[in-house]
Design goal:
single chain, alpha+beta, four-stranded antiparallel sheet, globular
Length: about 50
């Protein structure tokens, strides 16, 4: 299994799903490993905001 901090380097973040919020377009929250603001894409895949 790959440590989450390594996955963050490849823009594969993992937020605390219970602390995410709806911003009108995406679910947004902070990554548990690196603290960056991330948004949910499809099927629980998250990307950092501003990364495309």
């Amino acid at each position: 299994m790959i440590p989450q901090s390594i996955l963050c380097l490849f823009n594969r973040h993992k937020p605390d799903w219970h602390k995410t919020r709806w911003d009108g377009l995406h679910y947004v929250g902070a990554c548990t490993a690196c603290g960056r603001e991330v948004y949910r894409r499809k099927s629980k895949t998250c990307r950092a905001i501003g990364s495309g």
